[in-house]
């Protein structure tokens, strides 16, 4: 009987451990970083990096595509949940455990090609209407510094607002290798005007994720950087038509 009890306890412990290693990973629709393909499978530059990371560490996971604010909030409030691609800012530092960086980004102001206002520094944007996304780090950054922000629920609404003169600027995060952040039809109508900040982006995990899992993921990511896996994924999406 004692042996049976011990065996059952061991099995229960293993089940709990296996469950602890399963991650619910959230992200937003933001091509070419993360998006759903025609078959419904979530793919993209950042997504492929996350999938490779999970495979290398043997981590059970599922990825869910959500509006950014909800994706971020779930990682903050729900156990065993992570979100990508998340800018690591001082305001967010204590909210998550961090895996990365998985990429770098420039925060840029984009405007209409026919804009008529000067923009030589971030201070020149103080009197302008700036399109952001609810819950996004760019929104937090500009709002906390007293800028006039007009937040949308989906970042890709902002270029349309820009073309309709409902905003003057669009605060955009440009990942490495991304030439234009919107629909190709807008490429000659919306142009980059100013880089106002640079950040690194991460897989941000709820504090409930064990430290040993975070350490394992960071070690695997460092290996991916050394063996060229991250660079190979980047090159794939840097190619025209990708």
Features:
242 residues, alpha/beta, D-Maltodextrin-Binding Protein, domain 2, 2 domains, 8-stranded mixed sheet, two-stranded antiparallel sheet, 7 helices, 10 strands, globular, signal, Solute-binding_3/MltF_N, Transporter substrate-binding domain-containing protein
What does this structure look like?
- The protein has 242 residues and is an alpha/beta fold.
- It folds into two domains: 20-103 and 201-238, Periplasmic binding protein-like II (D-Maltodextrin-Binding Protein, domain 2, 3-Layer(aba) Sandwich), CATH 3.40.190.10; 105-199, D-Maltodextrin-Binding Protein, domain 2 (3-Layer(aba) Sandwich), CATH 3.40.190.10.
- 34% of the residues lie in helices and 28% in strands.
- The chain contains seven helices and ten strands.
- It has helices spanning 2-20, 45-57, 68-77, 137-144, 158-163, 211-226, 229-238, and strands spanning 23-27, 35-36, 42-43, 61-65, 81-87, 97-112, 130-133, 149-152, 169-175, 190-205.
- β7 (130-133), α4 (137-144) and β8 (149-152) form a beta-alpha-beta unit.
- α2 (45-57) packs across α6 (211-226).
- The protein is globular, with a radius of gyration of 20 Å.
- Keywords: Signal.
- This is Transporter substrate-binding domain-containing protein.
- Residues 1-20 form the signal peptide.
- Residues 26-237 form the Solute-binding protein family 3/N-terminal domain.
Rg value: 20 Å
Mean pLDDT comes to: 89
CATH class of the largest domain: Alpha Beta
Helix content: 25-40%
Helical/strand content category: alpha/beta
Number of helices: 7
How would you name the CATH homologous superfamily of the largest domain?
Answer: Periplasmic binding protein-like II
Number of strands: 10
* Strand portion: 25-35%
The main pleated sheet reads as: 8 strands, mixed
How many domains? The number is: 2
Order of helices and strands: HEEEHEHEEEHEHEEHH
How would you describe the shape? globular
Order of strands, main sheet, comes to 4-1-5-10-6-9-7-8
Q: Uncertain segments of ≥5 residues (pLDDT<50)? A: 1-20
InterPro entries: Solute-binding_3/MltF_N
Protein name: Transporter substrate-binding domain-containing protein
Pfam families: SBP_bac_3 (PF00497)
Keywords: Signal
């Amino acid at each position: 009987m004692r042996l049976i009890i011990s065996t059952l306890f061991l099995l229960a412990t293993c089940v709990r451990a296996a469950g602890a290693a399963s991650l619910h990973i959230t992200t937003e629709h933001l091509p070419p970083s993360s998006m759903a393909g025609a078959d419904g499978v979530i793919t993209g530059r950042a997504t492929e990096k996350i999938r490779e990371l999970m495979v290398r560490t043997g981590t059970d996971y599922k990825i869910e595509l959500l509006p950014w604010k909800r994706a971020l909030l779930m990682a903050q409030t729900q156990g065993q949940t992570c979100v990508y691609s998340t800018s690591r800012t001082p305001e967010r530092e204590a909210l998550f455990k961090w895996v990365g960086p998985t990429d770098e980004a420039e925060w840029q102001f984009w405007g209409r090609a026919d804009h008529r206002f000067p923009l030589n520094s971030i201070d020149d944007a103080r009197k302008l209407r700036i399109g952001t996304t609810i819950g996004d780090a760019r929104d937090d950054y500009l709002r906390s510094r007293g800028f006039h922000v007009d937040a949308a629920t989906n970042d890709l609404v902002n270029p349309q607002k820009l073309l309709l003169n409902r905003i003057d600027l669009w605060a955009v995060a440009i990942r490495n290798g991304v030439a234009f952040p919107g629909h190709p039809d807008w490429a000659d109508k919306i142009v980059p005007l100013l880089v106002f900040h640079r950040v690194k982006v991460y897989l941000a995990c709820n504090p409930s994720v064990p430290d040993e899992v975070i350490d394992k993921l960071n070690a695997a990511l460092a290996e991916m950087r050394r063996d060229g896996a991250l660079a190979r994924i980047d090159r794939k999406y840097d190619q025209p038509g990708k």
